[in-house]
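Hello forum,

I keep getting stuck at the same step: I have a sequence, I want structure tokens, and every attempt I make locally crashes halfway through. Rather than fight my setup again tonight, could one of you with a working pipeline run this one for me? It's a single chain of 334 residues.
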Amino acid sequence: MCGATGWKAINIFGEAQLDWLRQYRSFNNGIPTRHSIGRIIRGVKAESLMSCFINFSNALREKNNKEHISFDGKVVCGSKHGDDIDALQLMTAMVVDNGLIIYQKETSTKTNEIPVMQSMLQNINIENAVITADAMHCQKETTALIRKGKGDYVLQVKKNQGKLLAEIEAYFNKCYRDTPELLKQNHFMELDGEHGRINERHYRLLPITNWFDETAKFTDSHAIVEVTRLREIKEKISKETSYYITSLTSNVENVARYIRKHWAIENSQHWVLDVTFKEDDCKIYADDGAKNLATIRRKILNLVKSHSSKDSVAGKMQRACWDMNFRAEILFGE
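Reply #2:
Ran it on my machine without issues. Output:
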């Protein structure tokens, strides 16, 4: 929280803040050496620390309406060490509306994210939540687990589900030709932009009918969505179309909100971890050190975001460096 990214820096912080630290623990023998700090953090079992993190995060969760839980993977680039140790890869689950990270788990490869996410779904409370993830996770088994946990899903469909994608594209083409009024009834548009860029997004939702074969394989699928994105920069227009499948029975505007906000995990969490916490610059790799520091960073991020002061994460962290009372409020409560 105060900018220390390695064992030496943690030791220096401890030496400089020893009087403050002694308000909470005696430190009769002073601050451990940097080597001892490293051995301690590396030696904690990552699974045990993660179990504590999950319990802590669940205590912060306030479930009033439908939670939007976004799943996404991240690579901790600095944890790679030569040709022998690959960079740490993590799958993270985040409550989008408040930025609360509720679970993370290591993945060995990009393709291994599928069973890892499925395992995570079985270990967190997703009742009445809406789950979003990228197209890799548009899997029959994943939708079955989400519905078993009494949640809903909005998942992008790409070529990894080729037959489903072809059916969705064909059905939208059929409706454009035969029943365009149906598309008009279930249409929602967003328009925004800045610095000479204009973004226009069109969402069209169609309920699933007996015309489909493939959708039945995805548990309780209710509707399909077409999203057309138009971007204008200096009079040059680009166009992109993507498709989604969902179990939600909501109107198109509500479903559009989940699709748009899914990428908040990239902006709200990954960017902050890299830019503010300097996660990708951290060279710690041995034993469970990288995993444990990744968990600690996410716990601190949750605590910083939970503090009531109206400031950015970076602003709160800077104040925590200078103001010991504010630092204590973040760590131990206001």
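The first strand starts at residue 68 and ends at 76. If your local run keeps crashing, start a new thread with the error log.
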